[in-house]
Specification:
The complex is a heterotrimer of chains A (about 500), B (about 140) and C (about 900). Chain A contains 20 helices and two strands. By secondary structure, chain A is an all-alpha fold. In chain A, α5 packs antiparallel against α6 and α12 runs antiparallel to α13. The relative contact order of chain B is 0.10. Classes of the chains: A mainly alpha (about 500), B mainly alpha (about 140), C mainly alpha (about 900).
Chain lengths: ~500, ~140, ~900
């Protein structure tokens, strides 16, 4: 089965190359894009089944044994993330194709989008820290292009903030790689796990914190997230959906992977993570309350949700990490759904500012439902997926007696509900105050063109599905957490020659 | 890692930082360039120093560590590519604003002045004035 | 049971989706699910009355103990009957209350059904988390129901208020539940009540307080009550159902379930009894001041809920019994009274005591219903309320817990108020208007509108006359709550005893209060001095808003330099802070060669120069110089490939830099304020020092040899190349390289896209045969041309040679490609973009895509033949010029890299290289 592991990386790359070559035909490009991502999704699903059946699968690039070559490691965490990511990428691509707008028709869009997909897959699969850097760069460079495609003024401004901060993060990443190699003489993750243990404790914990910060910038932890709410809302909605849904999660993934794999329990910065988690929740949600633009509110909300993921990880118990993993899945799906819905709102209402749109519940009831469900899910209203995630976190937190952060998380979820409800009242209930600026007329009255409604509905359905299969999914998360905290199996699988 | 190399790298980092913390995009780009130079220097310094690692040009023991070199090479090229993109951004920004100053985020400025939760508070106030609870007789 | 809940859910969703087609008949369709539920419960009754239970379970998330446990016992059956039965009646009422052409009848009906379902689930749940789940669903549905007329600010505010308060309580309750479960080891209510869970200890105390918070907010206890009167903004049928008969009872119900076990806990009785009594009295006082009949009833509900809280909270079997009777009686009369108000409002258009018109004899029916229900509320004999009050007094009088008599006394006082506002209601609705004798437009209500209320009133009378009929269910209910309870015997007449006396006193006092209305009002007016809870709520909103602005204004100030500064500071401060305390200094490494010093010096000078000069152009040149300094360092360290790459990259990026800079103003503006300068310098210094320190420590703590030793060893035998760096790039770590050229490709696409926005759409794929365009300011001199052409081709050849040789000597795809790039640059300098375009036979896009395809293809191919990705197949061949060499798939891969790099350079010139651009339309 190990031949299947690289497919989610190389297939999108081939697709990207082809899509560049067939530049003259948009249709051909779209066919390539959808076909590739569909295949990737299928492949990832197969991998998930395989990994569940007979454990971690390792693929050695160029058949070089670790730590010589680059190893791709498909363990539970990687594959779970892979499946969710692939499905979301496909859904968003379909949505983007249907969405009117020059950007999505640019000759480069499809290939760049596929490059992004490749980068995301590589980030999840790679078992080599420097290769993770490269994967990040694929993903990020693609994201720079997607964000600024179209070159409108606010895009350029937001793009600058985004690119500069990301470049800063990348530089810090290279720096930590250099320091790690200086100290250990390897960049292979499994190898690092062994060699870091030999370092003096002080250096060990310093490296743990350094990596936490480096990845924390991508994951948008307090105080490293300020760039996010300034840049994400500017991009076109489907793009923002991918960024918010996936990119931040890749950062969290990197944190989870590095902290659990590289560092023995005694040198993990657990308290620091919990503190940052709490701060992220609070500051994020307060920011959300302060906005009056749907996409800005959502951007701040996801920041505050990142805090929940960090909270789960920071406990470093099976229960906590399991909760974090489950929450990641839930959060990717729900966030994507919400941003797609916000795109619909822009389409129908001609704006995403609460003061400019209104009365939508009459005008587009379907859209209202498509927003309300994930919104309540995000707020953790039972029986939606958000509740399972919230409860799992609270349960784990109380089990390890972290009452303060548990309290904070409960309080914040109330404020999250408030900020979701503000969108609901603002967009769907309030009578319109000003007429929409220059909104395209709503085709069909349902709320947006069918080509956008259906993918959105599909993603929302996924989010309901997460709640429906919460049982098995959480069981999987628990196995994943055990695997992560044990880390011997990972190392053994990789270094076996 | 030698003291000279570490010191040079550190200086590059310092100067780079100083430049990155400014508003002119072209200065920021130069700053990032210096920062990456510093990082690559550290990468180089993280490995053994020696003669070029080409088999047959000397005995293996005296080779410099090839792996950090390969990594640095990749890093250099990637940074080059992204820098080009960033320059394109600066170029675009110049077309739009005839400047490469990075402006502040407008939305954030609004927040500083805005009345937060305006709608909700307004509704509640109306409710409390209209809401005929406890009229004074 | 699960099936019935599913029926609720399904019909609810269907009604919301398609119900509007049925117009106001949607409400009849909606009545189906509750009817089924009521019938089913009736069928279970004899099972339940004999103390049996019906239970079902459905697993959700086992690992978290999340299972759907349902259990129908006496209390559950009582509540289910009330919820479903009253539900049916109110839905039928709604059918004739709403006009056929109301907007979205389906949505309203569907939400009501969903709510009813959640409520049924809540009272049948045997699992605290199922309780919480249904609890939150009722909160959300009630939010949507209150806000049904969402164009009205009052409705929106009331809806939000209700939602925030109840879900705040709900979240506290959730925390309480989890704490409780961790202490008691179970989420099952049955096991909690049956077993002996811990009732002492800090954790349990906190848990109980949190749970009670939930109960108080949901059941509108002081000081959280304010949302309930507000909720009267909802249509009357909704208020009648949610805010009198069912939802608001959820809190009381929860207390009833937990009290028998936890009443002994130190916090329990003081808290519950105090809150309950305050609510009973304060609610009554407020009710006496209302002119809007609906609000009067709302505050009456608050008050009655307080009394129920007291009775169930007391935790003695007798009190629980009294609580049960009151719960049933209240549901009956309060629902009926709301329906009466609805009828008045519907027919006369007002529900204000001061404006109601005189109603003629055709209104007798309504008046009787109102009289009976009001009497029951007041606790007159021969109606249900009397039985409730009697048993309440009896229970409180012989209760043994501390201050029980005080509680009894307060209850009597509160009940007087109840009598008074009951009287105020009936008098205000019928008697006073008739005395005022202002006949108004009051078409008598249709029998359909009256029937449900009449039915409820009838039951009230039956229970009042023959309470013993309910003995069976009562016993079952009370025993299901409190196993120690004896069989219940309800009766109208016990004997001449203290409770009877108290009832008489209550009635007398109450009527006195009602008669002496004017003086009473004057006294009550003082009450408006007391701060009002909804004002507190408003202030909370304000405070929250200010907090949000304050925090967000500080952290999110929108300025890139600040963000970058914070990030860099965090990135150095946190690791340094962790490193320093437990630092063992590894000792200084070798200072380095003397030869390094001048190079280092040159680097530093260049860097500082780039930072300080005013001219953009010179800054770029300094940056380039720094780059060459790097190259020198690489050479000194024994990294020729790196040096080559660095040099070429530097050349190219300087060129691109200059291409862009020629558009930008020549100089930087003045430096910003010196304060900022100092801050920047500070951060910069900190970064530098930390990097230095960390570098020394990291370098010093290396224990094991690098993995690359083995690479060197296996480079020739397995990697088929003598230049280890190149072998690493294209073989050991080919995946990196693949990713890297992807980055190149994507970046160049982005650059072209950005630089050429607003040109003609095809610009990004300019035709190769496009006519060469003169670069500005370049005069073409024949001899320059010739020489450039010669050089161009030589350099091109050299680049190709580097590509082939790279595997064994310094060189390779990158360096080759980059060198070709500089050849193209030469071309550009000579002839502008036109020269570049004619120079390459293909479109940049094709070169780029081709290179990427070649590389990715070579990487993927082995997969098809069962190998692993990037497997290298090789064979040695005889080549002219280059002599014998090893032609391997790695070389093809490298060729892909070469092409990609060339393509990138071509793209770069596409982006920046041509004539002054058209002004972009921002």
């Amino acid at each position: 089965m190990s031949w299947l592991v690289p497919v989610p990386i190389v297939l999108p790359l081939l697709g990207a190359a082809l899509s560049v070559l067939v530049g003259r035909s948009r249709v051909a490009q779209r066919v390539i894009g959808v076909a590739v991502l569909a295949t990737v999704a299928a492949a990832s699903a197969v991998l998930l089944v395989a990994v569940e059946r007979d454990g971690t699968i390792v693929a050695r690039a160029g058949d070089w044994p670790a730590p010589l070559g680059i190893t791709l490691v498909a363990d539970r965490l990687a594959v779970t993330m892979l499946v969710v990511a692939a499905v979301m990428l496909l859904g968003v691509l379909l949505y983007a194709i249907a969405e009117p707008g020059a950007e999505r028709n640019h000759v480069g869009f499809q290939s760049v989008y596929l490059a992004l997909a490749a980068g995301v897959s590589a980030s999840f699969l790679t078992g080599d820290l420097f290769n993770l850097f490269v994967a990040f760069e694929m993903m990020l460079t693609a994201s720079y292009v997607l964000m600024t495609l179209g070159g409108r003024r606010e895009q350029v401004r937001a793009g600058m903030t985004y690119v500069v901060i990301s470049l800063l993060a990348s530089t810090l990443f290279i720096t930590s790689l250099a320091l790690l190699y200086a100290a250990t003489g390897t960049v292979n993750m499994a190898d690092l796990a062994g060699r870091i243990a030999e370092l003096p404790p002080g250096v060990r914990s310093a490296f743990a914190v350094l990596l936490l910060v480096v990845f924390g910038i991508k994951a948008a932890l307090f105080p490293l997230f300020f760039w996010l709410p300034d840049s994400y809302p500017i991009a076109p909605s489907p793009i923002t959906a991918v960024f918010a849904g996936l990119l931040t999660k890749v950062g969290i993934y990197a944190i989870v992977r590095s902290q659990t794999l590289f560092f023995p329990a005694d040198s993990r910065p657990d308290t620091l993570v919990l503190v940052l988690a709490g701060a992220t929740m609070v500051v994020g949600v307060l920011g959300a309350l302060a906005q009056d633009d749907v996409k800005r509110i959502l951007s701040f909300t996801i920041v505050s949700q990142i805090g929940y993921l960090a909270f789960g990880l920071g406990l470093f118990t099976v229960a906590g990490v399991a909760a974090a993993v489950f929450s990641m899945v839930h959060h990717i799906v729900v966030t994507t759904a919400l941003f797609l819905a916000s795109g619909l709102i822009e389409q129908v209402g001609g704006s995403s500012r609460l003061t400019r749109v209104g009365g939508m519940v009459r005008k587009a009831p379907v859209m209202a439902a498509l927003f309300l469900l994930p919104a309540l899910g995000m707020a953790g209203i039972p029986p939606l997926s958000g509740f399972v995630s919230k409860f799992a976190l609270v349960d784990a937190g109380i089990a390890s007696r972290q009452y303060v952060v548990v309290g904070v998380s409960l309080l914040v979820s109330l404020l999250t509900l408030l900020s979701m409800i503000r969108i609901w009242t603002g967009v769907f209930w309030n009578p319109v105050e000003e007429p929409p600026a220059d909104g395209p007329p709503d085709p069909g009255g349902r709320g947006g063109p069918l080509g956008m409604l259906l993918p959105t509905a599909a993603v929302v359905a996924c989010s309901l599905g997460v709640a429906a299969v919460a049982g098995p999914l959480y069981a999987l998360s628990e196995r994943t957490a055990t695997e992560l905290l044990d880390r011997t199996s990972y190392v053994a699988e990789v270094t076996r020659r | 890692m030698t003291i000279v190399l570490a010191a040079t790298a550190a200086t590059l980092f310092a100067v780079g930082t100083y430049l990155v913390l400014q508003r002119k995009l072209s200065r920021i780009i130069i700053g990032l360039g210096l920062l990456t130079h510093g990082a690559n220097l550290l990468l180089l310094g993280s490995g053994r120093r020696g003669s070029p690692p080409v088999i047959g040009t000397g005995e293996v023991g005296s080779f410099s560590d090839p792996l950090p070199q390969a990594l640095a090479l990749t890093a250099i090229v990637i940074t080059f590519a992204v820098t080009v993109l960033l320059l394109a951004l600066a170029y675009r920004s110049w077309l739009l604003t005839h400047d490469d100053e990075v402006e502040d985020d407008v939305g954030d400025r609004d927040v500083a002045r805005a009345e937060i939760l305006r709608e909700e508070i307004h509704d509640q106030e109306t409710a409390m004035t209209d809401g005929i609870v406890d009229p004074v007789p | 049971m699960i099936a019935i809940l599913a029926l609720f859910g399904l019909s609810g969703v269907l009604l919301i989706a398609f119900g509007d087609r049925l117009r106001h008949n949607a409400f009849i369709a909606a009545a189906l699910a509750p009817a089924v539920s009521a019938l089913w419960t009736c069928l279970q009754l004899d099972e339940v009355v004999t103390g049996g239970v019906v239970a079902e379970q459905l697993a959700w998330v086992r690992q978290l103990g999340l299972t759907v446990d349902l259990r129908l016992d006496g209390m559950g059956a009582t509540m289910t009957l009330l919820v479903s039965g009253i539900g049916v009646l109110i839905l039928l009422y709604a059918r004739s209350y709403f006009s056929p052409d109301m907007p979205n009848p389906g949505r309203l009906a569907g939400l009501l059904v969903l709510f009813a379902g959640a409520m049924v689930g809540l009272v049948q749940a045997d699992h605290l988390l199922v309780v919480y789940t249904c609890w939150e669903i009722t909160s959300v549905t009630s939010y949507l129901l209150i806000g049904n007329t969402h164009t009205d600010a009052n409705a929106r505010a009331a809806a939000l208020h209700a939602l925030l308060v109840t879900s705040a309580g709900g979240l506290a309750m959730l925390g309480g539940f989890v704490l409780l479960a961790h202490e008691a080891g179970t989420y099952r209510i049955g096991e909690l009540a049956g077993g002996t869970p811990p009732t002492g200890g800090a954790t349990v105390t906190v848990a109980l307080v949190l749970v009670l918070l939930g109960a108080f907010t949901k059941s509108a206890q002081y000081p959280f009550h304010a949302w309930l009167p507000g909720a009267m903004a909802a249509p009357t049928p909704v208020s009648a159902y949610l805010h009198s008969a069912t939802m608001v009872k959820a809190g009381v119900y929860l207390v009833a379930r937990l009290a028998p076990v936890f009443a002994v806990a130190t916090v329990w009785r003081p808290t519950v009894l105090a809150v309950g009594l305050v609510t009973l009295v304060a609610g009554g006082l407020r009710a006496l001041r209302q002119h809007d009949l609906k609000l009067l009833l709302a505050f009456g509900t608050v008050s009655q809920l307080g009394l129920m809280m007291v009775l169930f909270g007391a935790g003695t079997p007798e009190a629980t019994t009294a609580g049960w009777v009151l719960l049933v009686a209240h549901a009956l009369f309060k629902a009926a009274l709301f329906l009466v108000v609805g009828i008045l409002d519907h027919q006369t258009g007002t529900r204000d005591i001061r404006e109601l018109p005189a109603l003629d004899r055709r209104w007798r029916g309504v008046e009787v219903v109102s009289a009976v229900s009001a009497a029951s509320m007041a606790g007159l004999p021969l109606v249900a309320g009397f039985v409730a009050k009697e048993s309440a007094y009896a229970a409180l009088l012989d209760a043994s817990f501390t201050a029980a008599d005080v509680v009894a006394a307060a209850t009597v006082g509160g009940s007087m108020l109840t009598v008074a506002y009951a009287a105020r209601f009936h008098r205000g609705a019928f008697l006073t208007p008739r005395r005022r004798g202002r006949p108004g437009p009051a078409p008598s209500p249709s029998p359909l509108l009256l029937a449900p209320a009449a039915l409820l009133a009838a039951v009230t009378v039956v229970l009042g006359v023959a309470p013993a009929a309910a003995d069976g269910l009562a016993t079952a209910a009370v025993r299901s709550l409190d196993g120690t309870a004896e069989a219940v015997h309800l009766a109208v007449w016990h004997a001449f005893n203290l409770p009877l006396l108290l009832s008489v006193v209550t009635l007398a006092g109450g009527f006195l209060l009602a008669v002496a209305d004017r003086p009473a009002q004057r006294v009550l007016a003082a009450g408006s001095a007391v701060p009002r809870a909804d004002a507190v709520y408003l202030r909370t909103l304000h405070g929250l808003g200010n907090l949000a602005r304050a925090v967000t204004g500080v952290v999110q100030n929108g300025s890139l330099p600040v963000y970058a500064g914070v990030i860099l500071l965090t990135a150095v401060a946190l690791p340094a802070a962790t490193l320093l305390p437990s630092l063992e200094w590894p000792g200084w490494p070798s200072p380095g060669n003397v030869a390094d010093v001048p190079i280092a010096a040159m680097l530093v000078v260049a860097a500082v120069g780039a930072a300080t000069v005013r001219r953009r152009f010179s800054a770029a040149v300094f940056l380039g110089a720094a780059g060459y300094g790097m190259a020198a360092f690489f050479v000194a360290y024994g990294a020729p490939d790196l040096a080559l790459t660095q040099a070429v990259v530097e050349t190219l990026s300087t060129v691109v830099f200059v291409l862009v800079l020629r558009r930008l103003p020549e100089r930087f503006e003045r430096q910003s304020s010196s304060r900022r300068r100092v801050v920047r310098l500070g951060i910069a210094a900190l970064v530098g020092v930390t990097v230095f320190g960390f570098a020394i420590v990291a370098g010093g703590s290396r224990t094991s040899p690098p993995v690359s030793d083995e690479m060197v060893a296996r480079s020739v035998p397995d990697g088929h190349g003598r230049n280890v760096v190149n072998v690493i790039l294209v073989d050991f770590r080919g995946l990196d390289t693949l990713g890297e050229i992807t980055v190149l490709a994507v970046a160049s696409i982005g650059a072209v896209a950005l630089a050429r926005v607003g040109r003609r759409a095809a610009a990004s794929q300019a035709e190769p045969e496009a006519p060469p365009i003169e670069a500005p300011g370049v005069r073409r001199i024949v001899f320059v041309d010739v020489s450039v052409h010669m050089v161009f081709h030589v350099v091109m050849l050299a680049s190709v040679w580097l590509l082939f040789a790279g595997h064994n000597q310094p060189g390779g795809g990158f360096v080759g490609g980059l060198l070709a790039g500089s050849a193209i640059t030469l071309n550009y300098i000579a002839g502008g973009i036109g020269e570049v375009r004619s120079g390459s036979r293909f479109r940049p896009w094709t070169v780029l895509g081709g290179g990427l395809l070649l590389a990715a293809g070579t990487a993927t191919l082995p997969l098809l033949t069962g190998g692993s990705v990037l497997d290298v197949a090789s064979s040695s061949v005889e080549l002219p010029v280059l002599g014998t060499m090893n032609l391997s798939s790695a070389l093809v891969f490298d060729a892909g890299v070469y092409l990609a790099v060339v393509g990138m350079v071509l793209m770069a010139f596409e982006a920046f290289g041509d004539e002054a651009p058209i002004e972009a339309s921002a």
